[in-house]
Amino acid sequence: MSANTVAQPTTGTDDAEAGRSIRALRERIDEIDTAIIELWQERARISQQVGATRVASGGTRLVLSREREILEKFRTALGADGTQLALLILRAGRGAL
To answer: How far is the C-alpha of 7 from the C-alpha of 82, rounded, in Å?
Structure first.
């Protein structure tokens, strides 16, 4: 490989057309991953604000019925993996129990 050649990420195929398609699809995946990360961080910040506002007004640190609603929404939409994802999302916003 010459000094002017840029290495392409491996696609797992030697077929040039398939390689281009895979690179384009991966580019979209990277865009989606960036959006997910940004939304995750925004959601965690908002959730922390909700908790702080609730505690400052004399409320409880957690509202378990709300957490159950979120768990059920994710489980219904995504199955068992949705439940695990919801648990991680909830923890990001409120901290560990």
So the answer is: 37
